[in-house]
Amino acid sequence: MRALLVPLVALLAACRIVPLADPKPVAGAPRADLTLIAIHRALALEGFLSDEESPGRVRAHLRRRDWSMSVEIDYARDVEIRYVASESLGYRERDGAKYIHRAYNVCAQRLADAIARQAQLVLAEFDPDAYLGQDPVGAPEPTPSEPAH
Questions:
Q1: Please, what is the Cα angle at 86 between 85 and 90, to 5 degrees?
Q2: Rounded to an integer, what distance in angstroms lies between the CA atom of residue 82 and that of residue 32?
Q3: pLDDT digits over 77-116, tens only?
Q4: DSSP label at residue 79
Q5: Which residue ranges make up each domain of the chain?
Q6: Residue range 16-126 in CATH 3.30.310.80
């Protein structure tokens, strides 16, 4: 019985190793400073800690009891999340393909979704007219390009 149990456990563990899939880019706020605010809020909400920051880029990590992962977030145009490193997630490369425990893909996608949500909330908070697609309240009426006769 024990001889059958060991291969079964190994098979179940292998099922959790999947191709590494960084999330698709998500839209940030229209300004880099607002996008950075959204990124920091999303990092906090998802339990990530920021490691280092430079213009257009943030590196952050997530630690759980038995594993950790690090990502790099570029926000020059859209917001892109890329794998940097991990511990105890079974990362490996084989035949040019990258594999990792599915927890990485799940956490990276949740972070991307949180950044997209926070970008919308930050825009609504700091520039509600742009969020609603309207001209600012109190803006002067546009002048006609040609005077009326």
A1: 125
A2: 19
A3: 899 999 999 999 999 999 999 999 999 999 999 999 999 9
A4: B
A5: 16-126
A6: yes
